[in-house]
Design brief:
The complex is a heterodimer of chains A (112) and B (114). Chain A contains no helices and eleven strands. Chain A is mostly beta strands and 112 residues long. In chain A, the strands form two sheets. In chain A, strands 2, 4, 5, 6, 9, 10 and 11 form a seven-stranded mixed β-sheet that branches. In chain A, strands 1-3-8-7 form a four-stranded antiparallel β-sheet, with no helix packed on it. The model of chain B has no long low-confidence stretch (mean pLDDT 92). With 114 residues, chain B is mainly beta. Classes of the chains: A mainly beta (112), B mainly beta (114). Chains A and B meet through β5 of A and β5 and β10 of B.
């Protein structure tokens, strides 16, 4: 079954404690992206990757890191989380030949 | 970068009525305009999209229109049903980088009352 998975789905953490949210896809898609969703602000792109070892900043990259060592995985790293990073995070993927993005189930993060 | 504005932020209609959501964008080079639907607690899913070389696209009860001169595009839902209740997002890419980067509107909460 074609899917995009994210882990964890829910996370409560404290300020400054490093965390990683994983995103994995089994569709062999080249393009992967991270978004955060906040009430009244819609979806804002954090980082995206066009292929392995190719990453670039989106609109709100501050406080986040990503890596793309394998085609199927695109982890989002928060080195020192702060309360303003409390949000709902979505990973999205698409193949290079199609513009439709396929979203993961979301990860709800609370930073205390 | 691209700036996308979406109106209204909330929309309530009676079942069977039509609903229209409008988005404006700033980058005249943008060439791809998708609409996503997000049901409560679910992930966004593409419902329809349009490229800049056409002015209208329809898929059953939903349609999207594009006015490149005025830099706006709209989602039209006819004969609304309760299951159409959701948050709808428009999006546009900066320049001609269609699909690589998307700037989303703030979303419209559509409520269809039975």
């Amino acid at each position: 079954e074609a899917q995009v998975t994210q882990n964890p789905r829910y996370l409560i953490t404290v300020t400054g404690k490093k965390l990683t949210v994983t995103c994995s896809q089994n569709m062999n898609h080249e393009y992967m992206s991270w978004y955060r969703q906040d009430p009244g602000l819609g979806l804002r792109q954090i980082y995206y990757s066009m292929n392995v070892e190719v990453t670039d900043k989106g609109d709100v990259p501050e406080g986040y890191k990503v890596s793309r060592k394998e085609k199927r995985n695109f982890p989002l790293i928060l080195e020192s989380p702060s309360p303003n990073q409390t949000s709902l995070y979505f990973c999205a993927t698409r193949p290079y030949w199609q513009e439709t993005q396929y979203f993961g189930p979301g990860t709800r993060l609370l930073v205390l | 970068g691209e700036n996308v504005e979406q109106h209204p932020s909330t929309l309530s209609v009676q079942e069977g009525d039509s609903a229209v959501i409008k988005c404006t964008y700033s980058d005249s080079a943008s060439n791809y305009f998708p609409w996503y639907k997000q049901e409560l607690g679910k992930r966004p899913q593409l419902i329809i999209d349009i490229r800049s070389n056409v002015g209208e696209k329809k898929d059953q009860r939903i349609a999207v229109t594009l006015n490149k001169t005025a830099k706006h595009f709209s989602l039209h839902i006819t004969e609304t049903q309760p299951e159409d209740s959701a948050v709808y997002f428009c999006a546009a890419p900066p320049g001609e980088t269609s699909g690589s980067r998307l700037t989303f509107g703030e979303g419209t909460q559509l409520t269809v009352n039975p």
